[in-house]
Amino acid sequence: MKKGLKKFLALTTVAVLMVGSLTGCGSKEKSDGSDKVLADNDISVVSREEGSGTRGAFIELFGIEEKNNAGEKIDHTTEEASITNSTSVMMTSVAGDTYAIGYVSLGSLNDTVKAVKIDGVAPSKETIKDGTYKIARPFNIATKGQLSAVAQDFVNYIMSADGQKVIEDNGYISVGEAPAFSGTMPKGKIVVAGSSSVTPVMEKLKEAYLAVNQNANIEIQQSDSTTGMTSAMEGICDIGMASRDLKDSETQGGLKATAIAMDGIAVIVNKSFIVDDLTSAQVKDIFTGKVTNWSEVIK
């Protein structure tokens, strides 16, 4: 295998076990006497696949994506990064490697990993709302042309006070005040496709909507933001999900974006690891490969 070739972490149990078994290989571990581990060891960078909305927002917000002289956006994520294809695999990968660092939607964060402070600010709904935690992006749904009656009713539910309460109750930030839902209980099937970051809250919205309209049938297809936008443009799904802003090519393709929530991106490390706070510059240096050993950021 060529040096620098990106490693792809498969969804299989075998791959997950391999990640866990490699933890600490060749390490110089030191203990502070607690369950935390200090380290002079190489950083295991874990990123998302190309097409992921979370990756797109992450590299933009941290300046990992930069324009070249021709005005083209270039992603400078290190070629040594392991690549995961979903939020759940990202967290499993970081949880299984003491020296790993990755990133996930704040709304998807669980206690298997640890979210670090960025520039001294912890990621939370409150710090995103007050603007002190700046690593945040919109969750968008995208539609093309006129929706079916049932699909439009579902969108109306999402944007209503009822739907926005579901969003808030599940750790995301609502997009503003809205009237209570008043639906007509239309019948039919809705296909929603795209971002694995948006999928968890969309599942909650589906559950809540079906409780008030049992005539509907909703199928959610999890992939990534780019696939969701392509599916919406091609009519494969009624509603696409993106954890980023839409690209010019997508809006030019007839898609209309509607922001349904705001969400932060949490930078995550292994729970046992000593680091609790990183600067934006350190995160950029780690993910571009400028910094490769934890001793360079842990003094």
The whole-angstrom Rg is 20 Å
How widely separated are the two ends?
A: 34 Å
Number of DSSP-assigned strands: 16
Integer average pLDDT = 89
CATH first level of the largest domain: Alpha Beta
Describe the fold and architecture.
- With about 300 residues, the chain is of the alpha/beta class.
- It has two domains: about 160 residues, Periplasmic binding protein-like II (D-Maltodextrin-Binding Protein, domain 2), CATH 3.40.190; about 130 residues, D-Maltodextrin-Binding Protein, domain 2.
- The chain is about 30% helix and about 25% strand.
- The strands form four sheets. Strands 1, 4, 7, 8, 9, 11, 12, 13, 14 and 15 form a ten-stranded mixed sheet that branches. A two-stranded antiparallel ribbon has the order 2-3.
- A hairpin with a 5-residue loop joins strand 5 and strand 6.
- The chain is globular.
- This is Phosphate ABC transporter substrate-binding protein.
- The complex is composed of two ATP-binding proteins (PstB), two transmembrane proteins (PstC and PstA) and a solute-binding protein (PstS).
- Keywords: Lipoprotein, Palmitate, Phosphate transport, Signal, Transport.
- Pfam families: PBP_like_2.
